């Protein structure tokens, strides 16, 4: 089995990686997808429950990875289920991360071409995005960890600033009365809110790179907690500003939220361009994490060079990102990726953890 280069992430860096893995393009469209399903102002409750579900799933994955602190999931799953089944499961995980990387690439194309660089060819947007990520991934998980440690505070600052400024146009009555139509609409929206929290699955791979893997469960708590706060706030504010009917008519509600106010006393009067520039970095982080994990998987399962795998995956991811022909198909593609994550990481880890305990853990 091919060894992974020994690199260690601090707990803070691991929290940054996990949070960046969860926060991506979903934040920009989540208010619409959540409200479309619930058709009530209580969609933010669905997001809160989705965050709790993500925490439980992440906790299970963290506990399983802690039993094999010196191995990635691709390595220890073969000890749990046997080599043949383990490699099949590992390849399914690789396919998921390749699909996730393709979706994030296409999301960047759509957002950038519509809001920032209108008329720019798609390849001219995605090529620098992909190649810079390739360069970053060549540095390994430590380079990605340091990047996330830098990006996350910047993203959080801009996010909080926009949320505070949007309070000038926020109307609390748009969210009242709470649970007026009962709890069923809240649970109905879970099928669109829960996939948004995919990202904690990266712990299956990066736990073995932590300086203190025993703190993996705390990382799950902080990472999913921060992401849940971001998502709940986004949905809450968008409904409060645009109403339920207004949110469902907007493709990217949070971007429209950043466009609905002007501030004369600040250097920037309009914030959507700043938000998009910052959030593209956030999507870049998610893409890089997915590319790294997919490359590590192929390297360890097929016993090939990690660097060569990176170069092989790049054109595959780009071709995959170009399959959707329009924005609706892009959102459908994202839904398929999210549903795949629920199957792979919402259902699979618990049986594997139970089998691992039954077989006596690390062998």
From TrEMBL:
Subcellular location, record wording: Membrane
Keyword Metal-binding: no
Top-level taxonomic group: Bacteria
Parts of the chain that traverse the membrane: 12-31, 43-63, 84-103, 123-143, 150-170, 190-210, 219-244, 274-294, 306-324, 330-355
One Pfam family hit: Spore_permease
Membrane-related topology note: Multi-pass membrane protein
UniProt entry keywords in alphabetical sequence: Germination, Membrane, Transmembrane, Transmembrane helix, Transport
Family classification: Belongs to the amino acid-polyamine-organocation (APC) superfamily. Spore germination protein (SGP) (TC 2.A.3.9) family.
Name assigned to this protein: GerAB/ArcD/ProY family transporter
